């Protein structure tokens, strides 16, 4: 039987165009070890792990006449050097230069004639640092058969890449005739499938988005509010083909202090810090902000069923990542009241009997947030940007050092894709005592994304000093 894309995975391909690439990214920064860490070592490391990720050596092939959804086939011309590319920053190699490179890389769609992932080994970063920028299409990572590459190449101890023999042999791809025969055979068993597949190709964006929602498995029913249009504002603009990227570095200890003071969760504080920053950002742009003004965030949360014994990324498939709409009270001038409002809103989710899997996620090997951000972006992809203003994905990571080969990772910033009419997406993760924000924005609508990033730091400082 053909390895056919699911309705959800196929929809990500149908939704993608030049202005809305459907890939999730990550920016990992490393200290260069004394023995060095070069492109050849990265190639060796990734090649060693590809045996655990068969999807990373497969490409998508369409069925003639669109009689069925596309299929995954082994890429007989797979070229690791094509996917793992070498890049370098010009002197002096500042962080801002790196973020500008990230923005340009993330703006580009990937070649659908090849496996849908890329990695960039970036040298020349000041302070004798190197970076690894990854891009993985949302159709690739399902959390069950395939996790994100960034999770698999990181270890808790330094690992030397020993020479090894790659025994992978690609399977011969099916012919066009075989693809049609397989499609016809499936149509005989399920006659309605043919109509659905043709509709996928000719439908407009609204119909496609509706199909994605169905493919998620009715996850829209999990939203704890009526689906109404989001408040209008500068965050909902028709996106261009350009991107801007900015980061925020904060310390986990600061969140713990605020948590102890106000009895809230770290996720509550993250959203409150973003809320305070959005308030100041809107005011700086001359936008009208009243006490009733809100910005609606789509916040996918990883959850565990009450009887779940052990957590793994595979346990998050089938609606285990649930998107929640949270109206961020940007009109509230008091930082504590903003925090309490957000905490109260999210507490309803915690009281529903399905617990947020933050603690359990810390037990997963490698860097699980890489996979979690991909799964959360998939879940968010089910919804039209008309019902939310921005996407916020927060996933906790390990509080111990991780290594790619023998290079120690110092920072990790997520890069979350933009949807149509959505100018900002924020990814957040914690790692080894830090909490790191990656802000992906549209270059035309959010050219001042670095200003917003600085305001998140200011908002957190405000929360640290606030009390009843």
From TrEMBL:
Pfam families with a match to the protein in the record: WS_DGAT_C (PF06974), WS_DGAT_cat (PF03007)
Enzyme class, spelled out: transferase
Catalytic activity from the UniProt record: an acyl-CoA + a 1,2-diacyl-sn-glycerol = a triacyl-sn-glycerol + CoA
InterPro entries documented for this protein: Acyl_transf_WS/DGAT, O-acyltransferase_WSD1-like, O-acyltransferase_WSD1_C, O-acyltransferase_WSD1_N
Occurrences of domain O-acyltransferase WSD1 C-terminal (ranges): 319-464
Keywords: Acyltransferase, Glycerol metabolism, Lipid biosynthesis, Lipid metabolism, Transferase
EC number, as in UniProt: 2.3.1.20
O-acyltransferase WSD1-like N-terminal domain residues: 5-270
Known pathway: Lipid metabolism; Glycerolipid metabolism; triacylglycerol biosynthesis
Family (UniProt): Belongs to the long-chain O-acyltransferase family.
Protein known as: Diacylglycerol O-acyltransferase
């Amino acid at each position: 039987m053909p390895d056919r894309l699911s309705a959800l995975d196929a929809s990500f391909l149908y939704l993608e165009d030049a202005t809305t690439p459907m890939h999730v990214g990550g920016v990992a920064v490393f200290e260069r070890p004394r023995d060095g860490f070069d492109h050849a070592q990265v190639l060796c490391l990734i090649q060693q792990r590809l045996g655990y990720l068969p999807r990373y050596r497969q490409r998508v092939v369409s069925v003639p006449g669109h009689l069925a959804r596309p299929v995954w086939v082994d890429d007989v011309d797979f070229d690791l050097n094509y996917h793992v590319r070498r890049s370098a920053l010009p002197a002096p190699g500042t962080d801002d230069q790196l973020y500008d490179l990230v923005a340009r890389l993330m703006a580009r769609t990937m070649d659908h004639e090849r496996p849908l992932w890329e990695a960039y080994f970036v040298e020349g970063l000041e302070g004798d640092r190197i970076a690894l920028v990854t891009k993985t299409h949302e159709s690739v990572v399902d959390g069950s058969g395939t996790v994100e590459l960034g999770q698999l190449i990181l270890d808790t101890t330094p690992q030397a890449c020993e020479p090894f023999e790659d025994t992978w042999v690609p399977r011969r791809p099916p012919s066009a005739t075989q693809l049609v025969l397989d499609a016809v055979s499936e149509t005989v068993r399920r006659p309605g499938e043919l109509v659905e597949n043709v509709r996928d190709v000719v439908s407009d964006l609204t119909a496609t988005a509706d199909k994605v929602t169905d493919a998620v498995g009715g996850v829209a029913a999990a939203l704890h509010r009526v689906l109404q249009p989001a408040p209008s504002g500068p965050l909902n603009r028709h996106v261009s083909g350009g991107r801007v990227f900015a980061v925020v570095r904060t310390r986990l200890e600061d969140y713990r202090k605020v948590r102890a003071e106000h009895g809230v969760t770290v996720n509550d504080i993250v959203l409150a810090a973003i809320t305070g920053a959005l308030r100041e950002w809107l005011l700086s742009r001359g936008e009208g902000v009243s006490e009733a003004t809100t910005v609606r965030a789509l916040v996918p949360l990883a959850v565990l069923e009450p009887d779940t014994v052990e957590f793994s990324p595979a346990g998050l498939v089938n609606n285990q990542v649930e998107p929640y709409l949270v109206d961020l009270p940007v009109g509230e001038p008091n930082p504590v009241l903003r925090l309490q409002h957000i905490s109260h809103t999210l507490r309803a989710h915690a009281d529903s009997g399905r617990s947020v899997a933050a603690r359990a996620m810390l037990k997963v090997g490698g860097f699980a947030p890489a996979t979690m951000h991909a799964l959360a972006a998939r879940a968010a992809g089910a919804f039209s940007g008309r019902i939310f203003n921005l996407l916020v994905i927060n996933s906790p990571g390990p509080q111990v050092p991780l290594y790619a080969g023998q290079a120690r990772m110092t920072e990790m910033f997520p890069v979350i894709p933009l949807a149509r009419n959505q100018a900002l997406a924020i990814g957040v993760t914690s790692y080894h005592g830090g909490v790191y924000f990656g802000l992906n924005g549209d270059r035309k609508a959010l050219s001042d994304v670095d200003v917003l990033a600085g305001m998140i730091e200011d908002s957190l400082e405000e929360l640290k000093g606030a009390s009843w």
